[in-house]
Amino acid sequence: MPDPELIDFDGDFRVNMYRNTAIDYSPRVNDRVNDKVNDRVNEIEEKILKFIDNDPAITITQLSMELELSRKTIAAKLKTLKEKK
Questions:
Q1: Which of 21, 31, 44, 74 is the most exposed place for a label (fewest CB within 10 A)?
Q2: Is 60:76 a contact under the CB 8 Å cutoff?
Q3: Does 80 score more than 80 pLDDT?
Q4: Cβ distance 52 to 75 under 8 Å?
Q5: Whole-angstrom Cα distance, residue 83 to residue 41?
Q6: CATH number of domain containing 49
Q7: Which residues span the domain enclosing 24?
């Protein structure tokens, strides 16, 4: 924030005072984005667990076809679920 500015007008003067008008919206935006991403991740993990509950012998390939996600994504989610356990 700039310092106050004193301007001389032939015997008169004016003081310009500045204020910080920038508003930081990033924490609120990031919170909303993170919430949506986390909700989506949890939703995928829940779906994977439901499929495994229904068929404990289900393969990663079958899960990827059912959930329309890549095998790599399914494998990563399974790894995350194992680590949470």
A1: 21
A2: no
A3: yes
A4: no
A5: 15
A6: 1.10.10
A7: 5-84
Q: Is 57 in a helix, a strand, or coil?
A: coil
Kindly report the length of the chain. Answer: 85
Digit-coded pLDDT (tens) for 14-63: 998 888 777 666 666 667 766 666 666 688 999 999 999 999 999 999 99
Q: How many Å apart are CA 7 and CA 10, to the nearest integer?
A: 10
**What is the Cβ-side half-sphere exposure of residue 9, based on CA atoms within 13 angstroms?**
5
Q: Which pLDDT belongs to residue 20?
A: 76
Number of domains, the chain: 1
Q: What is the DSSP letter of 55?
A: -
Distance CA 35, CA 31 (A): 6
